[in-house]
Amino acid sequence: MPITLKRMWKRLQLRVWRRTADDRDLADEIQFHLAEEERLRIEAGRSVADARHSARRDFGNVARVTEITRSVRGLASLETFVQDLRFAVRLLLRNRVFALFGIVSLALGIGATSAIFSLFDAIVLREIPVREPARLVTLSFAMSANRRNNYMPYPHFAQMRDTNQTLEGLFAWTRTPRISLGFQSGFGGREEIVSSVRASGDYYPTLGLKPALGRLLTRDDDHTGSTAAVISHGYWQRRFGGSPSVIGAGISLNQVPYTIVGVEPRGFVGVNVGVSSDITIPLRAGDRSGAGSKIWDDAFATWIEIMGRLRPGVSLEQAAEDLKLIYGQVNASAARAAPTDTFAARVGREAHLFVEPGAWGGLSGLRAGYERWLQLLLMMLAAVVVLASLNVATLLLSRSEARKDEIATRLAIGAGRSRIVRQLMTESLLIAGISGVLGLLFAWWASHFLLRVALVSSDTLPIDLTPDMRAIAFTTLVSATTSVLFGLLPALRATAGARHSAGRELSGPRRRVLERTLVATQTALSLVLLVFAALFVRSLQNLWMQDPGYDRTNVVVFSVDAGLAGKRGPDASRTYLSLLGALRAIPGATAVSVSAVAPVSTSYYFISSLTKAGTTEFPNDRRLTIAFNSTSPGYFDTLRIPFVAGRDFDLRDGVHSPKVAIVSEKLAARFTGNPVGQLIVGSEGVHEVVGVAKDNRYARIKDAPRDVVYLPMFQSPSIGYAPTFEIRYTGAASDILRSVRDVVASVDPALTVFQATTLEARTRESLSRERLLAMLSTYVGGFAVLLACIGLYGLMTYMVVQRTPELGLRMALGSQPAGIRRIVLKDSVVTVLAGAVAGLCASWLLVRFVRTQLYALEPTDPGAFGAATLLLISIASVAAYLPAWRASRINPVIALRRE
Q1: Residue 879, CA distances (Å) to 739, 773, 777, 837 in order
Q2: Which residues pair with 345 in a beta bridge?
Q3: At 231, which helix (H) or strand (E)?
Q4: d(C-alpha 357, C-alpha 826), whole Å
Q5: What CA–CA distance (Å, rounded) separates 627 from 599?
Q6: Which DSSP string do the residues of 245-273 spell out, in sequence order?
């Protein structure tokens, strides 16, 4: 520490910790000086009394000299602040109810806002923890009229990696959500499901990462025969207890042997926000697990994500120009090799590359899905902080009535207005500071809770929510702002009012305008937040109550992946068929089926195209985009999806039988006449339509019914995905799930059940964002109404106290309690109605900004506006009636005696 800073720190310590001793020394010095002056005057022949009086008169005001000496001594402002802080602590301890309410209300508002900001910071703002993240770039492409695709073909990556002139490094990766991990030696335990990333050899070098233990993957590891694997730091701690002996341990991934060679550094959870992985293996090593070699040369197979690092001094625009040229050359070559009228040729001609900053990770689904929601919640919670500040300001205004004699006296004996304002602001700063600390603690807990709601199906939270300097600075800024918001106005008002009178001042209508304005503003803000909450809750209800086209009650769903047990091709198909038969024997199972895409799927969403539907043809460059699903016989019966025409699949639809299909009702409308018996021609081949099923929601509950083709699952000789089994049951779901695990283990002990739940629970999980928004907006709206009503209650109580003599006189002259209540309630009704009208107008203007967040609901929905207004007025009426009832019970004798 520099010498100057050391000296300042020592002076600060001396002034703060030795202040009492210094003040005692200063007082002794002043008294010594006065005594010497008095002695000299006595020796000059004056009387003792005259000498004492003359010495003090010539010396001046002792208190003033003391203050001047302290200011010369230095750090007087700090000493004054410490004095004000002590005084503020005593005042808050004396008024515990006020302090408790003010601190708690502000802490909840600040904490909730900080919790949402922590999520926003971790998901949207925080850079990935690697070397110089600002130099990272991500690559994606899009067709001229289609949305962005973050997945790229391998030939494009290889060409850009080998020939670019602007990047220091370029790597590719692809994620495997589930992989079966077993141990060959050293570490026991049965096989478990983990998440995995396959990454090219430049993955770790380009990111600039150093291992926590062992080594990381390099380009030399990226070949088909590689057995190297790296585990994440979190998995190392969670599964191996941080043991260094993990290096060199043999493991198996989907029955294929690997060796752990290193551990990733602490804090690194991948380059996709919200997506973590336990194991990382070389990209090319996936061929050992049966991935095949066709994808390496297919210029239209999009399956990898790409990220690079700019060379020093190279701009994003220069890199984009370089990479787009290479991408275009690969596309042109691929287009020449494809027939001119195919979709592949169109992709080669029209696809164009995007190069964007990558400091915040890849195009994460969590980031894209929650960014706008979190922004909206931040704005709503900012309004709550303003409400809490206005509420405390209202209480401070009310409390200043009891302190006006004290403040007037201090002004009368010479205290400056700025000095008193500074002391009052110190009290506000103390409240805000305590609220900020409590709010930060609440934010840490709340952010974890909210992330758990958002990622309800995740076993671990893939985001680091430890408060960083940005979150702490945000909370500090909010706390400081609130202290100014609720502290400055009451301080100025108190000193201005007390300047004119040291006695009690009757409060007329003009003096109550400010308090009424504050309460009306709180009412208006509360109504806006209530309207938003009502809209989001009604939107969630609409999503849940809509007809999905199937019956989700009493249905259990779960997935099994035979590939994790080393079964591929026909072996996997036979395993699923055996399991399907065994599940039908479970007691309580009334119908059993299996499908590629579950009714509510988070794993698969299969898209294909048709060139012909019956006699209706679609040109190659304008093929009809469809969704498709592979299902077993009984699928429609299990989900109770009715048939419009034709039949379900059955055992005759085998591998060697003619190819058949079932189409959705919407797709059937594209045929001429009855679709049953007609052919469809597309990317999946030629199939005869044997049935038409009623439209239903495909994979996502929020999607509208679409053109869907259903294919027989076991008509394909092999199944390369993890299908979902559906069981309609009677009895308890827990009993069925327990039986399911027993049956799966009996068919093949190597099989693992995952994502086992009821269809209703999975539907709720798919609406996690909507539930989160509805839940938080309801909390925000309810808290806002509570604050507004407490503010109204405090204002009316304050006004009743001020008008006690007047009300007592009215009662003494014969007014009845009901009349007194009407007088008091009149003020409340006017204030609440004024705030409600302003709130309705503001809501009408603001709801258009949430139009895209609503489902099957107009932003100006009368039901939401009416329910919010009725609720607010009802609660406000109760808050206003209590002071009115208390006023009607005033004793006239006591009231007049006060006058």
Answers
A1: 55, 28, 22, 19
A2: none
A3: strand 228-231
A4: 60
A5: 13
A6: GGTT-EEEETTEEEEEEEEPPTT---SST
Within 95-153, where are the H helices? 96-120
Give buried/exposed letters for 408-444 (b at 16+ CB in 10 A, else e): bebbeeeeebeebbebbbbbbbbbbbbbbbbbbebbb
The rounded average pLDDT for each run of 10 residues, N- to C-terminus, in the chain (899 residues) is: 54 55 73 80 80 78 67 59 80 79 82 82 80 92 73 93 95 88 72 89 95 95 92 91 91 89 91 83 81 73 92 95 93 74 66 87 62 81 82 74 71 72 82 86 80 60 66 80 75 65 45 74 90 92 91 95 84 93 95 94 82 89 88 96 95 90 96 94 92 93 90 88 94 94 92 91 86 84 83 76 77 82 84 92 90 88 92 87 82 63
Separation between Cα atoms, residue 7 and residue 189, nearest integer Å: 62
- What pTM was estimated for this model as a whole? 0.76
Nearest-CA neighbor of 169 among 9, 311, 368, 288?
A: 311
Please name the residues in contact with 311: beta carbons below 8 A apart, sequence gap of 6 or more.
Answer: 166, 167, 168
Amino acid (1-letter code) at residue 204: Y
Q: What is the DSSP letter of 304?
A: B
- Only one residue has tokens 């009725």, namely 870
Q: How much of the chain is helix, strand and coil, in % rounded to 5?
A: 55, 15, 30
Q: Please state, in angstroms and rounded to a whole number, the distance separating the CA atoms of residues 111 and 105.
A: 10
Alpha-carbon span 462 to 272, nearest angstrom = 10
SS3 of 173, please?
strand
Q: How many angstroms separate the most distant Cα atoms in the chain?
A: 136
Counting every residue written for the chain, the total comes to 899
Cα 285 to chain centroid, rounded: 36
Cα 793 to Cα 884: distance, rounded to the nearest angstrom: 10
Helix (H, G, I), strand (E, B) or coil at 325: helix
Contact between residue 250 and residue 184 where contact means Cβ atoms under 8 Å apart? yes
CA distance between the termini of the chain: 65
